[in-house]
From TrEMBL:
It comes from the Bacteria. Keywords: Hydrolase, Iron, Metal-binding. Residues 4-199 form the Calcineurin-like phosphoesterase domain. Belongs to the cyclic nucleotide phosphodiesterase class-III family. It comes from Tumidithrix elongata BACA0141. Pfam families: Metallophos (PF00149). Its EC number is 3.1.4.53. This is 3',5'-cyclic-AMP phosphodiesterase. The keyword Metal-binding applies. GO terms for molecular function: 3',5'-cyclic-AMP phosphodiesterase activity; metal ion binding. It is an enzyme of class 3 (hydrolase).
Length: 272
C-alpha cells in the first residue's frame, strides 16, 4: 500500500508575515506540515497541487523548499495559476523535491510500486482559470496507452468537475469534457485530484465506460465556502488529504484539518 499526502493552495508570499484574510499563510502551512510530520506511518509521497505561492516570489519558493527538505519524503510540486513556471523548477529541485511542471516540460510521470502518477500542467499564463493543452492531452493519452495494466492517479491544479460553487466553477478547467473523454477510454485510471477550490470535494465520477474517484482538497490556508453562488470565505480550518493506494487499485482517503480554534480568517475582508 502507498500512502500519499496531498497539500494544496499554500499561497506563500515573498514576505513571510503576509496574510490572506488575516491568516499568515506561512504559519498555517508550517502547522499543516507539522501534522504531516506526526503521521505514523509517514507518507510515501507528497503531492502539492499548485498555488505554492501567492506572488511567485523567489523567497517564497526558497522557504517552501527549506520547509520540505527535513521531511525526507519524495515531494512533487505542481504549478497553479499563482505560480511561476520558470522560477519554480529552478528552486524546487533536489533533496527529494521535484517540480512536476515547468514551461519547457509541462507534464511528468512517475511510478511507485505498481501505481502510475501523471502530473499535468493546467496553468494558462495570466489567467485564473485553467486549460489542459492539446499537447498535454496527447501526452496523457500516450502514457495511458503505454501502461494499460497500471493503476493510475492523475493530478493537476484546476478542478475538472463542477464543485457546486458557481463562481469557482467559472474559473475551473475550461476543457473538462475533453479530459474526461480520454479518461473514459482507460479503465486503469483510479483517481484524479485537484486543488484551486480551497475546499473538500469527493465524488465517484461515472463516465460512459468508466468510474473514477475524484477529489479536491482543502487549502493549507484560507477555505472557500462550499455550495455558494458567490465568493465567500469559510471558517473551517486548513487541512490536507491522505490517500491510501492499494496494489489492486482500491483507494481510501481521509481529509485532516487543524483544530478549529487555529487560523480563523477575518471574514470582514471583501473581494477576491
Amino acid at each position: 500500500m502507498l500512502l500519499v499526502a496531498q497539500l494544496t493552495d499554500i499561497h506563500l508570499f515573498g514576505d513571510r508575515d503576509a496574510a490572506l484574510w488575516g491568516i499568515k499563510t506561512e504559519d498555517s502551512f508550517q502547522a499543516v506540515l507539522a501534522e504531516v510530520t506526526n503521521l505514523n506511518p509517514q507518507p510515501d509521497l507528497l503531492i502539492l497541487t499548485g498555488d505554492l505561492t501567492q506572488d511567485g516570489d523567489e523567497a517564497a519558493y526558497m522557504r517552501l523548499r527549506d520547509a520540505l527538505r527535513p521531511l525526507n519524503i519524495d515531494t512533487y510540486c505542481l504549478a497553479g495559476n499563482h505560480d511561476d513556471l520558470d522560477l519554480m523548477p529552478s528552486i524546487l529541485q533536489g533533496d527529494r523535491i521535484f517540480a512536476a511542471n515547468s514551461s519547457t516540460n509541462p507534464n511528468s510521470r512517475i511510478q511507485r510500486g505498481n501505481w502510475q502518477f501523471l502530473f499535468l500542467n493546467s496553468v494558462l499564463i495570466g489567467e485564473v482559470d485553467g486549460l489542459l493543452s492539446a499537447q498535454s492531452l496527447a501526452w496523457l493519452e500516450e502514457q495511458l496507452q503505454r501502461y494499460v495494466e497500471m493503476p493510475t492517479l492523475i493530478a493537476f491544479h484546476h478542478p475538472a468537475l463542477p464543485v457546486g460553487c458557481d463562481w469557482m466553477d467559472s474559473i475551473a478547467l475550461r476543457n473538462q469534457q475533453e479530459f474526461w473523454q480520454i479518461c473514459d477510454r482507460f479503465p486503469q485510471i483510479q483517481v484524479a485530484i485537484n486543488g484551486h477550490a480551497h475546499q473538500a470535494f469527493d465524488l465517484l465520477h461515472k463516465t460512459v465506460h468508466n468510474q473514477i474517484r475524484y477529489y479536491v482538497t482543502p487549502s493549507t490556508c484560507i477555505q472557500f465556502k462550499p455550495n455558494t453562488p458567490k465568493f465567500q470565505i469559510d471558517s473551517r480550518s486548513p487541512g490536507f488529504r491522505l490517500l491510501s493506494l492499494f496494489p489492486n487499485g482500491n483507494v481510501e482517503t481521509t481529509v485532516h484539518r487543524l483544530a478549529e480554534s487555529r487560523f480563523q480568517p477575518d471574514l470582514t475582508v471583501k473581494g477576491y
